[in-house]
Design goal:
The protein has 265 residues and is α/β, with parallel strands linked by helices. 41% of the residues lie in helices and 14% in strands. A 6-stranded mixed beta sheet has the order 1-2-3-4-6-9, with helices on both faces. It has a 3-stranded mixed beta sheet with strand order 5-7-8. Helix 1 links the parallel strand 2 and strand 3.
Length: 265
């Protein structure tokens, strides 16, 4: 990782901060690379309980850095922008799409704390989290149309999961800005807070007090890429059967009966 982000882990809670405050945390090749590395690292961390993603300074992420944007057609740009976008470098996705989707592979809940601006790629990064806590006055936009482009960091997939199709279309066609309050009504925000980072950390601490086995099983179930009821019902049963009688499940029951905090392995 590089100086574009800071990553700290305390009591099983990872805090990832986008760290280009002078540029409103805009995405450049170095930021792309740092986010990819951080996501892949956290995806393999067995000690994690929750992850919080936030931005330093006045914004969450203002989208693509304009200098990077101007170099998109330059083969010497380097980083994740130097390959054809149609090249599948990360499973079913390319590298920019992986920036937003890697958080689905992190086995614990990922919470985005959004304040200030979340434009274009910044919005898509936030949409890749499990939960979004957003400042009421945050400014958000599916901004790609402004530059003659379409959302291409998995935004089409992620937006469709959260909002009505006509809402997604209107925002994509116009690129207009909307507030955190509007985002809550649309489905893009989970809840509002005047201090999204502190609220996200409080939620992460609440999650971290639950059985890590059950939390990870729940995320696997909620991340299933299928809408086939039979497949989902079977997956529920498989996960539950593994949990019942396991040490952490027994500890959860005992702690509740004894009215004490659990001590999970």
């Amino acid at each position: 990782m590089n100086d574009r982000i800071t990553l700290s882990i305390e009591d099983g809670i990872a805090t990832l901060l986008l760290n280009r405050p002078a540029k409103l945390n805009a995405l450049d090749p170095a930021m792309f690379a740092a986010l990819l590395e951080a996501g892949e690292t956290l995806a393999g961390d067995a000690s994690l309980r929750a992850v919080v993603i936030a931005g330093e300074g006045r914004a969450f992420c203002a989208g693509l850095d304009m200098q990077s944007f101007q170099r998109m057609g330059d083969s010497q740009a380097g980083g994740v922008l130097d390959q054809p976008l149609t090249t599948r470098t990360h499973g079913i996705s390319n590298a920019p799409q992986r920036i937003a989707t890697v958080w689905r592979d992190v086995p614990v809940p990922v919470i985005a704390a959004v304040h200030g601006a979340a434009f274009g790629g910044g919005l898509q990064l936030a949409l890749g989290a499990d939960i979004r806590i957003v400042a009421p006055d945050a400014k958000m936009s599916v901004m790609e149309i402004k530059w003659g482009l379409v959302p291409d960091m998995a935004g089409i997939v992620l937006m469709r999961e959260l909002a009505r199709p006509d809402v997604v279309r209107e925002l994509t066609y116009t690129g207009r800005q909307f507030t955190g309050q509007e985002a809550l009504q649309m489905g893009f925000a989970t809840q509002l807070s005047p201090d999204p980072r502190e609220e996200a950390l409080a939620l992460a601490r609440m999650i971290a007090r639950q059985s890590p086995d059950a939390i990870r099983a729940a995320k696997r179930l909620l991340s299933l890429p299928t809408h086939d009821p039979a497949a989902v019902l079977l997956a529920e049963s498989v996960e539950q059967q593994k949990l019942i009688g396991s040490p952490n499940q027994v500890e959860a029951v005992r702690a509740n009966l004894e009215n004490r905090l659990p001590e999970f392995r």
